[in-house]
Amino acid sequence: MSALSTLMLLLLPGTLSECCGPVPIAVVVENRLQGKTLLTYHTYMPYRGILLGALKRIRDSNANFTFTYTENLNYGPYLESVNGVAGNTAKHTYWELLVKTSDGKIMRPDVGIGCYIPSANENIILNFTMY
Ligand code: B12
């Protein structure tokens, strides 16, 4: 470790302790449109990791969670299907991304799964719905 990094560690303990721990989140799959039961998956993410990484981590450790996405040139990954159910342009269905924050408020992020950075204890809701 360089002298400069050692100095930073000594001077910025507050800043450093704010970050870096594993961030617990839950991913909730909601599909009332087809009368399916709510499914909840728990995972941990690294500090300021993106939602797409969390979805991949859940998929890799959980045989009953699958998802697919397509790559949009301008906006990045578009969530196409979850657990075998895909959005359909002709039927006007899609997987909406909602977030229930730790204080219980529900919000609709203005970015997709590749850009959204979950905070600790958020419930990320993948909601199959119509537009
Ligand atoms: C219509 C629309 C939708 C429709 C698209 C349906 C359809 N087949 O037409 C629906 C309702 C499905 C939709 C969903 C979402 N959308 Co939208 N959508 C738009 C809107 C109003 C117009 C897009 C359009 O038709 N462009 C014209 C066509 C000719 O160009 P296009 O490139 O072919 O358009 C495609 C892409 O825009 C794509 N698309 C639409 N939204 C999104 C979002 C993401 C993250 C991606 C990767 C692709 C994508 O669908 C279009 C049709 O294929 C734009 C805002 C705007 N005025 O541009 C927002 C916009 C693109 N959407 C946005 C967002 C955030 C979302 C959601 C993540 C919202 C949410 N919280 O759920 C979801 C996507 C979730 C997922 N499954 O990944 C943001 C993206 C910003 C960003 N940098 O990530 C925009 C810019 C609006 C905003 N809030 O500022 N959306």
Automatic annotation (TrEMBL):
GO terms for molecular function: cobalamin binding. It holds the Pfam family DUF4430. Keywords: Signal. Gene3D superfamilies: 2.170.130.30. It comes from the Eukaryota. Residues 1-17 form the signal peptide. One of its GO terms (cellular component) is extracellular space. The keyword Signal applies. GO terms for biological process: cobalamin transport. Residues 55-129 form the Transcobalamin-like C-terminal domain. This is Gastric intrinsic factor Intrinsic factor.
